[in-house]
Each structure stands twice: as C-alpha cells, then as structure tokens.
Amino acid sequence: MTEYLTAELWSKLPNMFHYKGKPTPWVKMTRPGQKLHSFLEGPCFGDLGNMWLVDVPYGRIFRINKNGKWNLHKTYDGEPHSIKHMGDGKFIISDYKKGLLEYNGTNEFKTLATEFEGQKFKGLSDLTIAPNGDVWFTDSGRTSLSDPTGNVFRYKTDGTLVHVLSNVPYPNGIALSPDGKLVYLAATRANAVWRFLADYPDPQWPMVGNFVQMSGGLGPDGLAVHENGNLAVAHAQAGRVYVYNIFGDTKAVIELPEGLWVTSVIFNGDTLYIIEAQTGSVYHVELKD
Q: What integer best gives the mean pLDDT of the chain?
C-alpha cells in the first residue's frame, strides 16, 4: 500500500549565504535568464552527525550541524555536484568542472581523475561509495535522448578506473544496494531508474534493466537506498520524492510544501532528508518501512 506524505522543513539556507553576484557560466547554461542564490546538491553525513552538501554554481561546501545551523566551510573554483564522506575525515567530490576530487576536509584537493583513455569527462554529476570502498560516479555533461552518450565509471580502491556504461541519456544519481551487489542509476532524460549488477559477468558492458519508468517533471535526480533495500528517488522539477521497494513497487510518495527542484535525498536511519534547490531548503520525513 502506498503512503502519501508531506515532508517538513528542517533547515533553510540563511539569507546571508545567498549569492548576489552575476550568473556564472553554469547558471547561464542550465538556467538561462535566471539568477540563482544557490543550487544545493549531493549531501552526506560526516563526523559528529553534521550534514555536508555542495552549492554547484558557486563552488561552495556547506556544513549543517544537528540543530540545522549552517556554516560556509569552503569556497573554491569548481562546480561540485556531490560530496561523500570517506570515514577518515576525507571526502570525495564529483565536480562538473574539475573531475573526481579527494578533499582532505580542510584546504587541500587532490585530483583523482579528469579523463578516461585520453577522453576528458563530459562533466561529472553524482557519486556514491560502495561497501568495499569503490567510488561509482556519473559523467553526464549535456547528454540527453538526442545524445545518449553519458557515462558511468567505477574508481576502484587500487586506483583503477573502469568504464562501466557509455550509453546513458544524462546519467545522474547513483546508489548501490546495501550489500553492494546492485547498482541503481538515474537516467534523468529518459525519466527512468536503471538497475544492473555491480560485478557483472559480461565481458564489456553490464546487462541493464529499466527498474522504474517515471513520468512528468524532468526526471529522477539523486538516489538513496535504505538499509532495508528501499530506494528513494528525487524527482527533479516535480517537487516530490518517490520510495520504491526492491520489486519496484511504490511504497511512498512524498510531497514538499514549497519548491519544485528536488535534487537529492539521503537516509539517516529511518529519516529521509530531501534537498530542494529552488528555495535552498532541506526537508525531512520519517519512513517506517
């Protein structure tokens, strides 16, 4: 049975952190004619229970404490789309402009990858860290149904970079099942979530299935998997989140009271946190199963 829920506001980007400068190239490309005070994406939880998230067009990394208080942790010359905690004070960042980065949590960035076999990345989107420590990330650029050439890569713990897929119409959110055996991928411009085996037996490309076909909005953006295997999907420009079980059945539909640009989702226990970029807000909702 599908639950219909409304998320509650947890915290909102303070006005003091609203960007007031001229539109950047990223804003001009993705939101032509608009002025954005921020575009929040890619959250994670780090030490002490703080939430970390990034501001794509302005190269900002924010930290929010348990009480919802914001701190501008870092500004750098990049376009970060996602940040994930590595468990030792370090972070991995997928940056549309700079590639796959390692950040030491204070002031140093290390470039892990900017290309594959001489071909520069189109522009990185999301990432996730597998239970074994491998980093899976998406390379979307400006791909779509008219140019379905987006990529998925796997950066292994030994430094090997594996090209997993090359045929995705805007690969975006990516997440793994709790045991690390299944990969869920948001094919945003196909308005679908794909699924395939992480360790596939095929000689080159994995066999990929259409796990969920969506409609409306722009398409699925960020993904998050609960410890019970349920998949939460941020539906971009639709102002809602869907939760599916392992069979693809709809378990919950979560509406937001304000804002349509749902970019990311993340679980903390049974609480689902939802990032909404239009208003610069973080919402939350309790899910029981």
A: 96
Residue 21 in 3-state DSSP? coil
- 271, 178, 121, 208 alpha-carbon torsion, rounded to 10°: -120
Tokens standing for residue 129: 């860290």
CA distance 120 to 199: 25
Q: What per-residue confidence (pLDDT) applies to 55?
A: 98
Please tell me the distance from the alpha carbon of residue 44 to that of residue 85, in angstroms, as a whole number: 6
Confidence band, pLDDT 50/70/90 cuts, at residue 47:
confident
Token pair listed for 44: 């994670």
Tell me what the mean pLDDT of segment 113-127 comes to: 98
pLDDT in tens, 100-119: 999 998 889 999 999 999 99
Q: What's the average model confidence in pLDDT over 5-22?
A: 97
Q: What is the mean pLDDT of residues 9-20?
A: 97
> 183: domain range?
3-286
> Distance between CA 201 and CA 203 in Å, rounded?
6
Q: What's the CATH number where 59 sits?
A: 2.120.10.30
217 Cβ partners below 8 Å, 6+ apart?
A: 191, 235, 236, 237, 238, 240, 260
Q: Please, what is the Cα angle at 237 between 228 and 246, to 5 degrees? A: 20
> For the residues of 234-245, what is the DSSP string, one character each?
EEETTTEEEEE-
Tokens 């390379």 — which residue?
139
Show the tokens assigned to 121.
């990345």
Residue 167 DSSP symbol = E
Residue 72 bridge partners (DSSP): 62
Number of domains in the chain: 1
CA distance 78 to 217: 28
Percent with pLDDT over 70 in the chain: 100
